[in-house]
């Protein structure tokens, strides 16, 4: 019989192996762009900037922006103030891999699991994309790129990104449900 501990151990080994494979793959054409993207997503700057632009338009576009900001807040709090403090997974050891220093961003001092950047980006993309379907694909693509950039720049394992995405989806669902309960959408005209 396979125990839960064995499954977790195997998942951690797999997670480390995927991280090492990404770190060992030379991608000089991508390094600068992914490093910039990762830094641009610090403190949810990309999502908040998009929300600011969307809020300039009244009606459902402004509502989507506001709900997106609430989702970012909930996802960030859940990831950074709750889950990181409960699990306290160490950050990857970039010196133990063959990764190029050209791709690195500053190593955060917080625990690794989950990726708060990913949680916030996915939460914003999910809420806003649901309300504004024309933006679903570009925002979803950006959220995926932010998540990958965190692995590429050496500050997260892929499992951290996956956990962050799950928190983002859950946060988006909670904000959407709350908004529909407390402030239902006005009928379309």
Automatic annotation (TrEMBL):
<dbReference type="InterPro" id="IPR000326">
    <property type="entry name" value="PAP2/HPO"/>
</dbReference>
<keyword id="KW-1133">Transmembrane helix</keyword>
<protein>
    <submittedName>
        <fullName>Phosphatase PAP2 family protein</fullName>
    </submittedName>
</protein>
<keyword id="KW-0812">Transmembrane</keyword>
<keyword id="KW-1003">Cell membrane</keyword>
<dbReference type="GO" id="GO:0005886">
    <property type="term" value="C:plasma membrane"/>
</dbReference>
<keyword id="KW-0378">Hydrolase</keyword>
<feature type="transmembrane region" description="Helical">
    <location>
        <begin position="64"/>
        <end position="83"/>
    </location>
</feature>
<dbReference type="Pfam" id="PF01569">
    <property type="entry name" value="PAP2"/>
</dbReference>
<feature type="transmembrane region" description="Helical">
    <location>
        <begin position="161"/>
        <end position="183"/>
    </location>
</feature>
<dbReference type="GO" id="GO:0016787">
    <property type="term" value="F:hydrolase activity"/>
</dbReference>
<feature type="domain" description="Phosphatidic acid phosphatase type 2/haloperoxidase">
    <location>
        <begin position="67"/>
        <end position="176"/>
    </location>
</feature>
<dbReference type="InterPro" id="IPR036938">
    <property type="entry name" value="PAP2/HPO_sf"/>
</dbReference>
<keyword id="KW-0472">Membrane</keyword>
<feature type="transmembrane region" description="Helical">
    <location>
        <begin position="119"/>
        <end position="149"/>
    </location>
</feature>
